[in-house]
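Moderator note: this is an archived Q&A kept for reference. The question asked for a predicted structure of one protein chain; the sequence and the answer are reproduced below.
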Amino acid sequence: MSERKRSGIERAFTLVELLVVIAVIALLLGLAIPAFQGARNQARTVLCQSNLRQWAMTLAAYTQAHDGCLPSDMGGNLGLWMLRGTLVGDSDPNGNHAAFHGFHTRRIALCPMATQPASRGTFRVSFSSDKAAWQLTGEVGSSTDAWQILTPEPPFVGSYGYNHSLFCRFRIDPFPLMPFMRTSSFSTLSLRDHASIPVMLDATKPMTERSMSFPRPLALSGRGGGGGMNMFLMDRHGKEINAIFLDWSVRKVGLKELWTLRWASDFDRANPWTKAGGVQPEDWPEWMRDCKDY
């Protein structure tokens, strides 16, 4: 065999071997990348829980020092300033900084899975009485996007939402007017079964609605719209979300479990979206049907 033919055969074998190596590398990458992504998401879940534990320690210390009351400006804004902590604009007429919990919240306001806002829709909350009036506007978040409060200023970005009823005498219907003096505000010390009462959770809006209704879960995960529990329904942590409870524990919550938590004293925990209330598998949107039932 001539040297030229031998050289051609060697080159051909080298090319085949190279293609085999490339195929093996591609296969290994295909196996490794999901594992890396899973590890990264798990790390973000742990960081999210770490953020919530810092919230829990802060709020536990605050309620202990304030007769069980959660941080509120008591001017009708309810728990808005709890989210902002000391990051309240100096120009705000209700900005009595000494009344807040004195803890900078911006660095723990965001779940690592949702750190940047996106224009996915807006929300508006308003309140008025003979003593106060205010309006809150913002943009909703999603599984991977933070929500954003636009007014009152300064703008604030977050990806957790709090249980509104804890600032409203733990009731949702009828909505009770919030007192405007700290001395008469609601104390969580009067509540029982703290381990079942959610305080703050992964969310697409900063607070629950005043009336926790039972609309159908949205057909798509974490779009941010819709009422009731939809602000918590997302695939942010593997079809679970992280939450703080009033005993200041932090744990994952199954999406269907949300309807069984003790949101308020008058919240029906055997509502139509629970096993006790008769929910059927086909009642759930397709993306939620493999979630654990409660």
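Archived answer notes: Residues 86-95, 97-102, 178-184 have pLDDT under 50 and may be disordered.
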